[in-house]
Design a protein that fits this description.
Layout lengths: L1 E5 L6 H10 L3 E6 L2 H9 L3 E4 L5 H10 L2 E4 L4 H6 L3 H19 L5 E7 L26 H9 L6 E7 L2 E3 L7 H12 L2 E4 L5 E6 H14 L4 E5 L2 E5 H12 L3 E4 L1 H8 L1 H6 L9 H7 L8 H6 L14
Helix pairs in contact: 1-8, 3-5, 5-6, 7-9
């Protein structure tokens, strides 16, 4: 199949492109800069130089493809720019444009959200693929619902919910690099209270494989969980970072965590997000094989990367 991939040069997107190519597919990857285009081209994919704001370009690329994987999101606008609402609006426009272009075709459309959208609606147990997020609890719920609605209009749409920690040596801008940068700057690796909040985790290459499986075989309307580990205690994550930097791990108040990491990231660290992927594994035969989160942190690459983000 000829697959159109948005966010094709990213931490997850590029491994997805490579996995698709390795599986015998052809890939057209969206790239918004020359540097991104070079990454996509070097991987062996065709490049479409445009942005999420080019709705005509997205529409034509979707129509001419045999399937679409949507990974792009305006992270710079949402986080560095402080305009999460603007980033979400752009995402919804892109999802609607791609979905409308595929209506009646039976083609696959794989969108991306996150397991954290269940943190406010599922308590006391592991969240499952059957659970829906609350509209007011996480703004990406709207993107998920919009894309899955196309399943009733002749699109084989599905959603991959990514764990908050998609980890590997390719991860230079995610939550773990943010936590490492903060611990390095502040001289301690912090956690709130007893650090009992749990985060699911998945290795980048295992997540990439799930996207290909979803594209090839996910039934219409499927929610899929990219969670190789159901939940790693946040204190364990903080302690692993502390060992890597040779600094103490320290319990702090919620308010202090907000000061150390910034409001949004500080809040995320306190959310319990225990997440099951049992149905995803059974449905698609997905079998994560790469290192778990704490083993990956222990490998040391997070502490020596030249691409670490600045401390919050």
């Amino acid at each position: 199949m000829r697959i159109f991939v948005t966010g094709a040069s990213g931490h997850i997107g590029l491994p997805v492109v490579r996995d698709l190519l390795g599986g015998g597919h052809k890939v057209v990857g969206l790239a918004r800069s020359e540097a991104s285009a070079e990454k996509v081209s070097s991987a062996g994919a065709e490049v479409l130089r445009t942005t999420l704001d080019d709705l005509d370009g997205l529409r034509e690329a979707a129509r001419s493809a045999d399937g679409v994987i949507h990974l792009a999101f305006k992270h710079d606008l949402a986080f560095a720019g402080g305009d999460f609402a603007g980033a979400m609006a752009a995402d919804l426009r892109a999802v609607e444009t791609i979905g409308e272009a595929l209506v009646g075709s039976g083609k696959p459309f794989v969108n991306t959200t996150g397991t954290m959208l269940l943190a406010h609606s599922v308590r006391g147990r592991a969240g499952t693929e059957d659970d829906e997020g609350q509209e007011g609890g996480n703004p990406r719920v709207a993107s998920e619902r919009l894309s899955l609605a196309f399943a009733k209009r002749g699109v084989r749409s599905s959603v991959v919910r990514l764990a908050p920690t998609v980890h590997s040596s390719l991860d230079h801008h995610g939550f773990i690099p943010m936590l490492v940068a903060s611990a390095r700057k502040n001289g301690c690796s912090a956690y709130v209270g007893d650090g009992a909040a749990r985060w699911p985790a998945v290795h980048t290459l295992d997540a990439a494989r799930l996207y290909r499986l979803a594209l090839e075989a996910a039934p219409p309307g499927s929610r899929l969980h990219a969670a190789a580990e159901e939940g790693v205690f946040f204190r364990s994550i903080a302690e692993a970072i502390a060992r890597g930097l040779d600094v103490p791990a320290r319990s702090v108040s919620a308010e202090k965590m907000g000061e150390l990491l910034g409001g949004f990231v500080g809040v995320i660290t306190q959310l319990d997000n225990l997440t099951s992927s049992a149905r995803t594994r059974e449905l698609l035969g997905w079998k994560p094989t790469h290192a778990d989160l704490l083993a990956d942190i222990a490998e040391g690459h997070y502490f020596f990367s030249d691409a670490l983000p600045p401390a919050p």
